[in-house]
Amino acid sequence: MIQRGSPMLSFFLVWHIVWFARVALSLVLFLVVIRRHLYKNFLLFAVHSGWIALAGVTILAMNYALFVSGKQFFIGVAITIAVEATLAFAIIYQMFVQRLRPYPAVRDLGSTAFRASTLVVLAAVLALAWLAPGSGVRYWTSFSSVIQRSARMLQCGQLVFLFLFCSYFRLSWRSRAFGIALGLGISTSSSLAVNAIMSQLGTAALHRSEYVLRLANESGNLIAVLVWLFYMLAPEQTPPTDPTLPEHDLETWNQELERLLQS
Fold first, then answer.
1. What is the Cα–Cα distance from 248 to 259, expressed in whole angstroms?
2. Which of 52, 100, 234, 238 to pair with 16, CA 20 to 30 A apart?
């Protein structure tokens, strides 16, 4: 029980306010995506936004339903996170493929580099899971935090590679595609930080800081939804066309590879 006047009560109340706001704005985001027909260009993101809206309402209702047990709530949250993480992986890979679509000669090379970087990050994730497993007393809570930490770390690695790749070769982003990637980066990095901390906390420490961590995680998700809403509502900007090729440009690579393949 939380005592009245306790600082934990304040964190508990603010966490629920942020939670309600995030779920409400997730519904607004999904309606915006459908109303503006953005699913035509961003189908996977439309599915992702629909899922976080539906799952958010469902989990919120389960939290206040008296007939839902703690085990059922835990399973519901686990399913929600697993589906959301799977969709996030698919969105990241789709955005990378779309960035390389105008350059067919380097598409295979870029895809190989993406897979190689993913394997490197995966090796680091497995090593971290082996060297720093969950230390919490409650097995399933600790195990869940380690799994989420591993998935978010892998997503962060893929997003970092995507941003660095596009930045190095100066590939233009469409504003909404950049907004989707930015929102995923905010949500994923905040979740990674929170789950990394939770996986190493014992029962007593977790009990003292539980609502602070939940507030931090929910705040990251809320900021991500706000970023997505901003970019979905903003006018789409066409990437500028510059007749002068930059020093590191995939167009040059693409032309040279095509010439070598045809020779």
1. 18
2. 234
Residues 193, 196, 198: CA angle, nearest 5 degrees: 110
Q: What is the pLDDT of residues 70-101, one digit of tens each?
A: 889 989 999 999 999 999 999 999 998 888 87
Between CA 53 and CA 100 the distance in angstroms is 31
Residue with tokens 């009990």: 207
Predicted TM-score of the model (pTM) = 0.84
C-alpha distances out from residue 83 to 23, 47, 59, 105, 214, Å: 17, 11, 14, 34, 20
Q: How far apart are CA 245 and CA 5, in angstroms?
A: 63
42's tokens: 């961003």
For residue 93 the two structure tokens come to: 């890979």
- 11-58: per-residue pLDDT in tens? 889 999 999 999 999 999 999 999 999 999 999 999 999 999 999 999
> Shortest CA distance to 109 belongs to which of 239, 247, 256, 245?
256
